[in-house]
């Protein structure tokens, strides 16, 4: 079975403080994991992806995520939040379950950055 | 700029009307997808096309039809629109295991 859970629907941080957006997944196969960002009234943009190489993945705009198989987690972090980071973030799991590429999106986490 | 282009960006329909959402990509991707996005529900797959000439149902296909016209174009049709189809629709394409490239979306309201 494949699923993804984003543990917080809203996260609020002050500008300049660290960001942590949490994502847990389940997959019966070796998964690929992604984080996407969606700014208001825009499409989704790929931030970073994990595809069984290095477990610490660096993405655009200073974001990174660590794949932890033992914890089935793929949390997104950034050392210092900028105002421009305010957006909705989606965690996505993909695997070859059933012989085809199945993909599941999380329900999203809205990040608010307070000046 | 290379990417996925969706038209129209906004549309208001009356219940029972029909319309087609257009999507085109210029990245030579094999796979194309239609998703709908509703508050608190993430993105749900409506239909996908793994390659030119093939289409398959996703999680929420009822009330929709699709056509993979060629490798570039993948359209979504609502034959008889219902208020439950009010949503934001995203087209996406993908090649292999690389992440999706998304269009900017179509905001559809059915009254």
Describe the structure.
The complex is a heterodimer of chains A (115) and B (111). Chain A has strands spanning 3-6, 10-14, 19-21, 23-26, 32-38, 44-50, 56-58, 64-68, 73-78, 87-95, 102-105, 109-114. The termini of chain A are far apart. Chain A has no helices and 12 strands. In chain B, the strands form 2 sheets. In chain B, strands 2, 4, 5, 6, 9, 10 and 11 form a 7-stranded mixed β-sheet that branches. Chain B has a 4-stranded antiparallel β-sheet with strand order 1-3-8-7, with no helix packed on it. Chain B is mainly beta and 111 residues long. Helix content of chain B is 0%, strand content 50%. Chain B is built from no helices and 11 strands. Classes of the chains: A mainly beta (115), B mainly beta (111). At the A-B interface, strand 5, strand 6 and strand 10 of A face strand 5 and strand 10 of B.
* Major sheet description of chain B: 7 strands, mixed
Structural class based on helices, strands and sheet pairing of chain A: mainly beta
Q: Oligomeric state of the chains?
A: heterodimer
Classify the beta-strand content of chain A into a percent band: over 45%
Q: Using only CA atoms, what is the Rg of chain B?
A: 13 Å
Q: Uncertain segments of chain A of ≥5 residues (pLDDT<50)? A: none
What portion of residues of chain A is helical?
under 10%
**Tally of DSSP helical segments of chain A:** 0
What overall form of chain A do the CA principal axes indicate? Answer: globular
Task: Name some characteristics of this structure.
heterodimer; A: 115 residues; mainly beta; 6-stranded mixed β-sheet; 4-stranded antiparallel β-sheet; 0% helix; B: 111 residues; 7-stranded mixed β-sheet; globular
In short:
The complex is a heterodimer of chains A (115) and B (111). Chain A is an all-beta fold and 115 residues long.
Describe the secondary-structure layout.
The complex is a heterodimer of chains A (115) and B (111).
Chain A: E1 3-6, E2 10-14, E3 19-21, E4 23-26, E5 32-38, E6 44-50, E7 56-58, E8 64-68, E9 73-78, E10 87-95, E11 102-105, E12 109-114
Parallel strand pairs in A: 2-12
Antiparallel strand pairs in A: 1-4, 3-9, 5-6, 5-10, 7-8, 8-9, 10-11, 10-12
Chain B: E1 4-7, E2 10-13, E3 19-25, E4 31-37, E5 43-49, E6 56-57, E7 64-68, E8 74-78, E9 87-94, E10 101-102, E11 106-110
Parallel strand pairs in B: 2-11
Antiparallel strand pairs in B: 1-3, 3-8, 4-5, 4-9, 5-6, 7-8, 9-10, 9-11
